[in-house]
Design a protein that fits this description.
Belongs to the EROs family. By secondary structure, the chain is mainly alpha-helical.
Length: 454
């Protein structure tokens, strides 16, 4: 009797299991598949860019398409766009060459202005430093010098001044033992997550170095400045009445800031998809809706283009030796193509219009002192990768200003002193020009994204 009851219980359990398998397993599978699908959907179907929100509908056909003459230059926007279309691919190939991709600098200087108590610990903030064995031997010879003097107590790198009277920036001493080798291609300038009060403090310090009048940021969140008229002078005074030197300094700083913002937004990390790509909302909020910021990027491009033209003979004679003759010849050929294309244009910027009156020497020295301080401020940046590109681009701009305002044209002629500029200055100059070139190309891509929203 007991065995019969046990058998009946087992039969009931078996029936229950069959019912569960028949009716509930499909429901469970559907539930699991649905959950997995919701998780994977963004990775499979989303684009790298973050969904655009709070951006006006594309009713403005001139969005990020400035026309006419670029203020305080000798060229128009269309000319710069045409030039950049021809030069951008060549510039990219140039900065990927061994000579221009390797850079030595001190990434770990103390901030000279305030205790640098914030350091970004995100992985994207880190710089991948090269092992010295990876650096081509010929470049290492250029990046270091040995002091054989009796007072050296052995072989020590030559100590150099941070700057000379002609310099607009504090230069990197490539012979310093504190320097590290960096491959710039492996450390691209892009979104790192370094933002908020620490980044705001850097840009505020940069703008406050304007040597003519204090500049006020719009807000910590926006991290940029008021337009030139309202930022530097009383509202009653028009921008046209401010001195050219004042406007140039402001445009250089604003254009650099806007260009960096474009790079961040163009290579933005999408936390939803886990991919890198353009973020139109970021671009629109930081740069796109401000015509003056877009114009100042073009202004910087024009200034650097003029510097390249002025020193073209010097650059054509420079020894771009990296230890690989084939690569060095290719580098020389690419640079010659860039210089030939740029020289076909009339001068984009008239540097002789600045510092031209009786008080110009005092004004120029103030300009240089404050621009040097901008380069020093880069040592206060708490993100190593941001610091790297901040140093390179302020050095590149400072080198362009040195070429334009510290030397007459004949200094860069056929008989120019080959040591007129350090290797680090030339590398920084061309990499910075490429950064502005990429910014202008990115602006065109973001404009297309805007118009494609229709």
């Amino acid at each position: 009797m007991g065995e019969a009851k046990d058998a009946e219980k087992e039969a009931i359990k078996a029936l229950r299991r069959k019912l569960i398998i028949k009716y509930f397993r499909p429901l469970f599978i559907i539930f699991i598949v649905t959950r997995i699908g919701k998780f994977l959907y963004p990775y499979i179907f989303s684009s790298p860019s973050i969904t655009v929100i709070n951006v006006p509908k594309p009713t403005d056909q001139n969005y990020c398409n400035p026309m006419g003459l670029i203020a305080d230059t000798s060229c128009d926007f269309k000319t710069i766009n045409d030039v950049n279309e021809n030069l951008s691919s060549e510039l990219l190939k140039l900065v990927e060459s061994p000579f221009f991709r390797h850079y030595k600098l001190n990434l770990y200087k103390d901030c000279p202005f305030w205790p640098n108590n914030y350091l970004c610990n995100r992985e994207d903030c880190n710089v991948e430093v090269m092992n010295e064995a990876e650096v081509p031997e010929e470049l290492k010879k250029k990046l270091g010098a040995i002091d054989f003097s009796p007072a050296s107590f052995g072989l020590q790198p030559l100590k150099k001044c941070e700057f000379t009277n002609r310099d607009f920036c504090v230069l990197e001493d490539e012979s310093s033992q504190d320097g590290v080798y960096v491959d710039l291609i492996k450390n691209p300038e892009r979104f790192t997550g370094y933002a908020g009060p620490p980044a705001h403090k850097i840009w505020q310090a940069v703008y406050e170095e304007n040597c003519f009048a204090p500049i006020k940021l719009i807000s910590a969140a926006n991290d940029h400045v008021l337009p030139m008229t309202n930022a530097l002078v009383d509202n009653a005074i028009e921008e046209d009445e401010t001195c050219l030197e004042k406007r140039v300094f402001y445009r250089l700083m604003s254009g650099l800031h806007a260009s960096v913002s474009v790079h961040i937004c163009d290579e933005y990390f999408n936390q939803t998809t886990g991919q890198w790509g353009p973020n139109f909302e970021c671009f629109h909020e930081r740069v796109g809706k401000y015509s003056d910021r877009v114009e100042n990027i073009y202004f910087n491009y024009a200034v650097m283009l003029r510097a390249l033209n002025k020193m073209s003979l010097y650059l054509q004679q420079y020894n771009y030796c990296s230890g690989n003759p084939d690569e060095d010849n290719k580098t020389k050929e690419i640079l010659d193509n860039i210089l030939t294309s740029s020289k076909a244009l009339p001068p984009a910027f008239d540097e002789k219009a600045l510092f031209s009156d009786s008080t110009s020497n005092i004004l120029k020295e103030e300009f240089k002192d404050h621009f040097r301080n901008v380069t020093r401020i880069m040592d206060c940046v708490g993100c190593d990768k941001c610091r790297l590109w901040g140093k390179i681009q302020t050095t590149g701009l400072g080198t362009a200003l040195k070429v334009l305002f510290s030397y007459d044209d004949h200094k860069f002629g056929i008989r120019a002193n080959p040591n007129l500029l350090q290797r680090s200055e030339i590398v920084a100059l061309l990499n910075t020009f490429n950064r502005f070139s990429e910014s202008i190309s990115s602006i065109q891509r973001f404009r297309k994204m805007y118009l494609d929203q229709v």
